Amino acid sequence: MSEPLIATALRRLLELLADGAPIDDLEGPLAAARAADAEPDQLIGIEDATWLALRVHRTLGQHRRREAELAALFDTAGDLAALRDLDAVLRSIVRRARMLLGTDTAYLTLPDEEAGDTYMRVTDGSVSPLFQILRLELGRGLGGLVAQTARPYATPDYRTDERFRHTHTIDTGVQEEGLVAILGVPLLLGSRDGGKVIGVLFAADRTPRNFSPDEVALLNSLAAHAAIAIDTAKALADTHAALAELADANTVIREHSAAMQRAEEAHDRLTDIVLRGGEVPTVAAAVAELLGGGITVHDHEGKRLARIGTDQDIAAAEMTAAVADSRAAGRAVPRGGRWICAVLAGPELLGSLVLHARPRLEDPDRRVFERAGVVTALLLLFRRSVAEAENRIRGELLTDLLTAPDRDPDGLVERGRRLGTDLDRSHLLLVAETAVPARAKLTATARQYLFGRDGISTEHAETVVMLLPYDGTAPGEAARAAAAQLTHLMAAPVTVAAAGPAAGPLALAAGHAEAVRCLRALHVLDRTGDGADAADLGFLGVLLGNAHDVDGFITTALGPLLDYDARRGTELVHTLAVYFACGGSLTRAKDQLHVHVNTVVQRLDRVEALLGKGWDDPDRALELQLALRLRLFAGHH
User: Fold this and answer.
1) In the predicted model, what is the mean pLDDT of the chain?
2) Which of 246, 376, 534, 572 could lock onto 545 through a cystine, CB 3.0 to 4.6 A?
């Protein structure tokens, strides 16, 4: 009987082990033997067998747990190998920690170097929103102890554990989550002694619990994987950032290389234009092609010298302001979708370049545009130097014409043709004068004023004489324009008198003499700094002018009265003559005219309406009387 009972018990124990039965079921065969009143030696044998079965069950459980742990670690390693999303890997690690340790929650904290604290990076099993966003002061709580010592710590009851520094914030978050037992392990990079703690991994229960060494070791292994994941992600991020920076640098290098090549080509092209004696329009065309926009070139007065690839113009006021800004900055400046570059020779403004239809201009293209301004300055300086040299030679011709026009007029005309000046063509004569301190500068300023106007100038008798091709501009208007511009350039009053148009050496010399007389009259009339011709001086002009245009003077003075008498059959001109002849006496005038005095008054009122107020002022009255007398001498009644 004894053998079958023991054998039955052993068989049953083996079946339970094979079926993976709970550990409590393993005590069933021993309980059955006791119930059957088995012999003591039989009970001892069954008790030994039961104890061995319990050991086997515990060993199998450990193996299964170890197998699960190894599988989890293997899966975690696989996640790391295929790292794409750091957050996803960390969530997986925290979830496995909670599952393998069988805790209510697990979480991971990382330091925030900028804020100077730590924060919840990942949680699993948390039910408290406050706990999920909890921020912890450095060195405080269980996590602070783990981070400072780089060693794992476990507490069976967090609230009563005095090994670490409690804070209201942390305690409130732990209480809100309902945590009691907490195990924390460091996320360590490198060895424990010389490594760096980059975070803490926790597993926690809402009931008291003692964590076993195996559980601590398992959480340590998961923390090591988490540390590797974070470090790998950081390395990848740094690598990606470095690659992005490298790509950006490579792009910048390529763009810089292309810009340098383009600038070199632009330099070679513009230099070639200068060496081949190119003109300003040639430079403008090259710049327009290089920069892909329209170009206009202007002189120092804003007059356009060239236009390439655009039909746009810029308002004079905007142009003046932009050129001033460019001149002050020494660089091209943007204005209303255009770029403007002052063309300078030292401090002197020679002109300006305008680039149209290029709102944005990168630095390399901007330097090309500014280099074009330098090349344009060289060409304008060269052009001015040539013009000044030609002007000096032609100035000698003008001096000879003024001093001895009748000695060899045909020779003077031939010399002029060889020098590009046709003396047989109609010209205006301008004579300019300024005060003694500024007189030495006037000659050079006159050449600057004539630049681009196809005129010539020379010093003569302490004045500067300018010969300009006649383009339809009235002499007086030309004189006033020259006086205004020369005064501006000199920063001192310049008086200009004009005569003409005249053609041929003799007529030009006579025009010069008339302009000199007009210049003296301007000074006598205290009109220094003004410009005029003989026609602008009224009866003085009749006396000073070579042509003595009597009819023109009469028409200018009496024209409105003559027209009114012709249309209405009245006698306003005759009444005015009688009135002046009677010394301005209405009584004597009405007797001479054989009309009522009121009729004389009415006629004189009409004269005032036609000639304007002030007609009987002394100066005006003198002109009217002279015009009436000249009309009488000319045979008019």
Assistant:
1) 81
2) 534
